[in-house]
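**Discrete fold encoding**
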Amino acid sequence: MGTDLDLIPGRPAMTRKHVLANAAAVALACMACAAHAGEANPEDVSTVIVSGRKTQDVRATSLVTGTSGSPMDTPFSVSSVSAGLVRDQGGTTLQDALRNVPGAQADSGFNGSHTQFFSLRGAVPDSGTGSNRVLRDGVRLSNYPYVPGFIESVDVLRGPGAAIGVRSEPGGTVDIVTRGPRMANAGSVLVSVGRDDAQELTLDLNRVLSRADGVAARMIATRSRAGEWRHVQDQLDGVKLGVAKDGGARYRLSAGFEATNQVYQPDYGVPAFGNRPAGIPRDRQLGEPFGDSTTDNRIADLHGELAVGTGTRLRADLTHLEAHSTSIKNLLNGSPLPAEPPSTYARVSSWEPDTARRIDAAALSLTSRRRLCGVAHQVFLGFDYYSETLDQPTLGVPAATSPAINIFAPVYGRVTAPPAGATLPRSLTTQDLSARAASLQDQVDLGDWSLIGGARYTDQRFVYGSAGVRPVDEADWSPKLGVLYRPAAGNTVYANLATGLSPNQVASSSNQSLPSRKATQAEAGWKSLWLGGALRSDLAVYQLRQTNMISADQSTPANNFDFTVDGSARSRGLEAVLGGKLGDRLDVSLAYAYTDARYLSNAVYGGKRVPNVARQTLSLWGQYRWSRQWKTGAGLYAQGARFADEANTTTLPGYARLDLTHAWVGKVAGIGEVEVQLALRNALDQRYFVSSHLHVSRWITPGQGRNASLTASYRF
């Protein structure tokens, strides 16, 4: 199968055959035949396919308390973005979803557009071993891709939150909630095409196998292809299967399997030139990998929930991931060469074949609502185990295979693969983490007051580095405290103090893995309902401090990969959210953040501002329903100027991007509903830059120019 890349001299044609491509095609055919095997119920469609805002918000609070509850009664900042909202906005990626979350800003990663990086509340992201740190259905899975057809919602706890039964990153926790079986017969087919060969085909079928026994199954098959406007490919094929037995209020059991195959080429963007992004066409590709990169994930999971008496529930979760990948990169290296013209950069190829990652996670929790001595308590007790192993080999590719390139007058086709049969030097990066933790939390409700107190104890062994690196054994407590007061109906004010713990993925000059980074946050806020509950607002101010951060080891200045944990950073800010309905026709969503993030202690960058973090960001979305058939949406996303690198030498200019959508929805008599959407992103064709790699300014990600997509979905 060829791509647009074949038009660039020196680019190999894409020839890898997908195992999942055939599986997905078979699944699509089988599900299409089965779609009308049972009687469709139009009312079931909204239950299975569309998630209401109220349901999403309630579920998001489980990141804080371990159980569902109203966010108005939670003394922490939580956000939930439904897959339906992302679709309405014409979005397809994790960064598209997070634009609705105040304090979330983009970071650069190079694992394809299906796996995107981000920062929350100005916390420096840790992208060692190419991993973004997200949860999938409450379980931490490194490098988990965002597959639009699988997603129910993206739930976010802003800021660290101890005692939630999982590890918390310093800036917050992002949980990607996937679609599972429901007790309803429903399904959907979605087809989307866009500029530069962007495509998506997804079929989602949910069937009740036995209503009397409460058994249902769900199958989702998808092919998702990112637009190749930067002349690199990214295609993901996936299948998600699930079966569940629902015992009503008594219990629920489910089992699932998910498989994805991704083929992509890393995109390192454009370099800075004169302390600004180079003035070259935004689609100019400067890397020429000699082969495709691949990531294949296999996930199996079991979930169970059981009522143990009145007001008490027991939950158990088991998740296993096997991932295999190959990464082939070609990228600009170092500063411009001292040659004519001065815009010539050296390039280097990197080859990481046969990387293997395995994750095993188990969690057991007990939640109980009780009245003791006339006081209402909501207790959470959790135990969890997490094991992750990663072996990432690297082959040394001869420098002669990657000639330099002039970024203003590139000549393609000169990069070559290593000679066949050549013996290449080999190194191995290992990451092994074994963690056991216990969490205890109590929420006490005293009339108009609620108090939350809890702590998480973690005992873990962690190793990261090359052969012979020594592990770090550590045990630590992460406490948290929250208080909430209800001064009037529809209003709550709150304050909290929360902590978090996250492993550093570096080693010292003495080949010693380093202990975890720590975070402490103080926050105060006000939540309110307006217009009889049609609108909800959330205003928060916070200060977040990180310690045990990595800092360059000045005793070995010649080695850029020797570190200490003498670093620290501080971010403080204000976040505001307003969302809901204005009348019967207009849906609105606003997210604003002011974030002041800078390094404190750091051997090289002390006092510098954290890269990729603008002081001000704004996301504004509105959708107006002209009638039952027609709706129009408009979104504005604005981000101020920010630095591209830790040295603060390069500035990414601020920008404002306008997106427009228009959709028609029609009923198909007796069998379902059709929706057709036209989306125009970056309607004013603004030139902007999404993010940069935090350590250097030669890998800056440009934003796409004006582009359109057409999406049709049939729900039955």
Notes: Residues 1-53 have pLDDT under 50 and may be disordered. The CA atoms of residues 370 and 377 lie 5 Å apart.
